[in-house]
Amino acid sequence: MNRHVKKMAAAFVMIFAFATPAYAMHIMEGYLPLGYCILWAVVCVPFLAAGYFSIRKTLKENRRAITVLAMAGAFIFVISSLKIPSVTGSCSHMTGTGLGAILFGPFAVSILGIIVLVFQAILLAHGGLTSLGANTFSMAIAGPFLSYGIYKLCSKLKVNRMVSVFIAAMAGDLFTYCVTSLQLAMAYPSEVGGVGASAAKFLAIFAPTQLPLAIIEGILTTVIVMALETYALPELKSIGFAKEGK
User: Fold this and answer.
1) pLDDT exceeds cutoff 60 at 71
2) How far is Cα 124 from Cα 23, in angstroms, rounded to an integer?
3) CB of 59 closer than 8 Å to CB of 104
4) Minimal CA–CA distance to 106: which of 69, 144, 70?
5) Per-residue pLDDT tens for 106-164?
6) Residue of 75, 96, 109, 144 with fewest CB within 10 Å of its CB?
7) What are residue 134's phi and psi, to 5 degrees?
8) What SS3 string covers 221-235?
9) Which helix (H) or strand (E) holds 93?
């Protein structure tokens, strides 16, 4: 394995050591009604099953991919644990799922995401186990699928690779919060205006901090991809990300 990749992974762990618990945009424990907890958990099942088989196939074909896969998971763990205060006592944070979606596809990220969410719920009181299904769908399924789709579309349109990475990561971050706002609105519709008005309210709460955070996530993801192409090109080629001869 490339020693530079291992150094990058170690750096993520060091950063995580200074992350502190806080309440953030993961839907917290006990906030959703039981019916919605069950609903979102059931919706996630087929994506998680596909993710398991996707990762198993990737590692079976190429064991070297495990280092980059682990780093993608560490990236999600670290930056989604760093919370920025928003309005009304809430917080916002980046998601980190765009990187994994671009490198390994969206199904694999569903597994990485749920692992991260379980550890955050247990160790950091960030999110919750009852709301695990809802948080998994928004952060580990919906966001990554949009990131992957945008990246592939930009590739077909011959957009610069790094510009494509930036746009994909930024859009996936923002879409995660749109989905979360919709989930909250469905559970708690406004008396005036229903689900639509409630969703707009939740989006307005997080927009002041989430918009700049999405841009920062896009930049960070682009920098990491550039670093990987510099120090771990063989690993990227082995998973089919980097073109031969790049």
Assistant:
1) yes
2) 9
3) no
4) 144
5) 999 999 999 999 998 888 877 789 999 999 999 999 999 999 999 999 999 999 999 99
6) 75
7) -65, -45
8) HHHHHHHHHHHCHHH
9) strand 91-93
